[in-house]
Amino acid sequence: MQLTGAEIVIRCLQEEGVEHVFGYPGGAVLFIYDELCKQNKVKHILVRHEQGALHAADGYARSTQKVGVALVTSGPGVTNAVTGIATAYTDSIPLVVITGQVPTYAIGEDAFQECDTVGITRPCVKHNFLVRDVKDIALTIKKAFYIASTGRPGPVVVDIPKDVTAAKADFSYPEKITMRSYNPVTKGHPGQIKKAIQLLAAAKRPMIYTGGGVILGDASVELTQLVRTLGFPVTNTLMGLGGYPATDRQFVGMLGMHGTYEANLAMQNCDVLFAIGARFDDRVIGNPKHFFDPKRTIIHIDVDPSSISKRVKVDVPIVGNVRDVLKEFNKQLDAGKTSVDAAALKSWWTQIEEWRGSDCLKYDRASAIIKPQFVVQKLYEITKGDAIITSDVGQHQMWAAQFYKFNKPRRWINSGGLGTMGFGLPAAMGAQLANPKATVACVTGEASIQMCIQELSTCKQYKLPIKMVMLNNRYMGMVRQWQEFFHGNRYAESYMDALPDFVKLAESYGHVGMRIDKPADVEGALKEAFARKKDLVFMDFVTDQTENVFPMVPGGKGLSEMILV
Amino acid sequence: MRHIVSVLLENEAGALSRVAGLFSARGYNIESLTVAPTEDATLSRMTIVTSGSDEILEQITKQLNKLIDVVKVVDLSEGDHIERELMLVKVRAVGKDREEMKRMSDIFRGRIIDVTDKDYTIELTGTGSKLDAFLKAIDSTAILETVRTGASGIGRGDRVLKL
Lengths: 565, 163
Known about the structure:
By secondary structure, chain A is α/β, with parallel strands linked by helices. Helices cover 28% and strands 40% of the residues of chain B.
């Protein structure tokens, strides 16, 4: 029996085991929506803006191991989605994005709601397709899921013209797929692994630095085993938090622009650096010129060869899936022939503990105004470190990363690479739908939240009991901080004037709103909010306007040039 | 340093723009780029002439390999190879220039492929520098129009780029 293209699309999603699709209907995808409503295996979540659909699919993917799926219409549907696609691309999140397109005969004629989707999205997808023939839909969607979820993951766009969704073809979904042009490497080179182990054993001041690759590659168990066997200090990037238990003594905190003093100095002063699923980006190592001095030996595992020796020259590159490679490391280390330089390691730890003693994350705990760090700290205590935390972008994001201790992977969800304001709330929706029993909180600011605040309506429709923790300092805080440090205190356009009454706003969307302006009320408010298991509670914390994120490595500087409190 | 990179890629719509987009997005140089289908109609072969340090070339090769449509990448300049470029040049050929142009074309092993009473069109094949040399050797005011294909390259002997 022949099926229409639209039926085939839905059947493909069912075959892939897709449970949720985040989307927004429009002319070019009406046949697909018509088929969506005729079945109940794939549930559609109607967002209020396509950017929200992408971030929600993204949060869904980040909080699980699954591929997130979004469905948007042509033209503005696609252009609205681009920010979300680029966000996922930069953080290597597996998504399949199905986009409607004007009919094939109208392509190129500047038709209503036409845009060159494949052209517009090309620089921010892992791959994209335009399906011109109904017979190609099934194979293309199969390829899309395969490409999105293997190797270094990423978003894949499948653009389907409206007439193709109406045309008919036989349907069969391919079980397996091989592509001659795409064969991601999994296992690491055994010779390189051996060489790396010898270097680690001889290290006097070793350091392990891990990134989002450990989370995406589900390698935190293997990493934890490795770190404990070696006894080395370990740091996580912003994207890597939760890859290693943050409450463990060997964890020296996050590194980078707002990393801890001990993590950054250990990074700068180590003699052997073991980088795992991390990419030495500018927010992590600052200026590579500073990073080259002093010289250190670098071992680097990454699934993407192009991430190796891109900004920093690596001595021992190991291309492969982080988990497979770490398993091999653990196997060789367990064989028992390797012993580390215990005496050197002991004095290295003494040095690190001295740095740790500087207590670089200290803040005024006796303040009469709510300190944003205090809110996050209480959030951590009240949720027992067990919540899924999403965040927007700015100061609040850094405080969440610094003060919430993530002991497990996939609990910390933020736009690390692209830095997309507006990410937090829709990402929390995706995470909550994927984990209905989990406590999900979104740490946000009064500026970021307004970039996707319309999704509060989606939360009401689908009864998503997200806890919104808004640190309201009436400024685009990170912009204000840079203006204070680097632009002579001229706060050009960073003051958030004419803010809405967030309590009333939350209430008008049908949620619970709270405004908290005294430190003494913080704990009680959080407790009350988290006790309301079924409600979305929007907490507006009125925080110190002048608080800055410390430590800070100014842009273009080296890791040892931190500004401390 | 100048490099000549050969790329075997799926012969699909948009594959060329993926490569061109990669070079412009990452700020890599393209001196020339040629592309055409191979004897296997599902594959295209591209020759890119670029320049950069060893580190940049390593990144270019890795980034090209990362493109889903790309099947194989070889930096031909890493070993023995041959490269050729085709140029068509239309020159004024009147009076004493007419004989001179014919002679120059012969010296450079060009072929005159179109003739009118006022001009010749000369076809010339060789390395880029040979084509440059020809243009330098003739009277520049006699040149009416030139068109060049950019370099195509192939490895010598048993250096074969094939699936």
